[in-house]
Amino acid sequence: MCWLIPNIFRKKGSILAESDPMKKFLVVGLGNIGEKYAGTRHNIGFQVLNALAENKEVAFKPEKLGDVTEVKIKGKSVLCLKPSTYMNLSGKAIKYWMEKEKIPLSNVLIITDDINLPFGSIRLKAKGSDGGHNGLQDIQNKLQTTAYHRFRFGIGDDFSKGGQTEYVLGKWSGEESALLKERLDRAVALIESFVHAGAKNTMNTFNNT
């Protein structure tokens, strides 16, 4: 449910600003910076945004608290952010760019890995708990809400007891790598749908694929 906040209560630059579909969107891919983490399952958020940038033929550049680029989707401006704060402090970068660009919470999409979904499965949710994910937990703490859109990309749970950290921070298997391109294309399509068709339509279209 979206509550309209009277003008008297809205502050310039506040993340509580009234939603306007013509305003900018912020799409954030969660991950960890550095070569050590490149191409790992935990960095799927970065990989999805890299695929989007490649599709739109734009490049990221280092800015405050992250690498940033901007793309156009159906005439709307979409700021893409790969936080440089490391996964566990992602909320700081997100809040900064929301306030700097005056982007309402309803126009924010967070891309994250999810071990509870089979590899390559994609799901869009309008709200929810952090599910033990440190990045989502920090976002919840910084924004003081769980009601933000999150795009969950399944990485599977093919690990033995006690092996979760090694698995999540590990590289894709050969079989996964061979299938990843098609799933990244599907992820880019989900983002485009979120921006031009809205969250509800996007869920109906993509949540069973």
Describe the structure.
- The protein has a seven-stranded mixed β-sheet with strand order 2-3-4-1-5-7-6, sandwiched between helices.
- Helices cover 34% and strands 20% of the residues.
- With 209 residues, the chain is of the alpha/beta class.
- The N terminus is likely disordered.
- It starts with 24 loop residues before the first strand and ends with a helix.
Question: What labels would you give this structure?
Answer:
209 residues, alpha/beta, Rossmann fold, seven-stranded mixed beta sheet, globular, disordered N terminus
Sequence-ordered SSE layout with sheet pairings:
Blueprint: E1 25-29, H1 44-56, E2 61-63, E3 66-73, E4 76-83, H2 90-101, E5 108-114, E6 122-125, H3 134-143, E7 149-154, H4 164-168, H5 174-197, H6 199-206
Parallel strand pairs: 1-4, 1-5, 5-7
Antiparallel strand pairs: 2-3, 3-4, 6-7
Helix pairs in contact: 1-5, 2-3, 5-6
- How many discrete domains? 1
- Count of distinct strands: 7
Quaternary form:
single chain
Mean pLDDT: 89
Q: Largest sheet, if any?
A: 7 strands, mixed
Question: How widely separated are the two ends?
Answer: 25 Å
- CATH architecture descriptor text: 3-Layer(aba) Sandwich
CATH homologous superfamily descriptor? Peptidyl-tRNA hydrolase
SSE order, one letter for each helix or strand = EHEEEHEEHEHHH
Low-pLDDT runs of 5+ residues are 1-19
The SS-based structural class is alpha/beta
* Major sheet: arrangement of strands: 2-3-4-1-5-7-6
CATH topology annotation: Rossmann fold
User: How large is the radius of gyration?
Assistant: 16 Å
The helix fraction, in percent, is 25-40%
Task: Report the β-strand fraction as a percent range.
Answer: 15-25%
| The CATH class | Alpha Beta
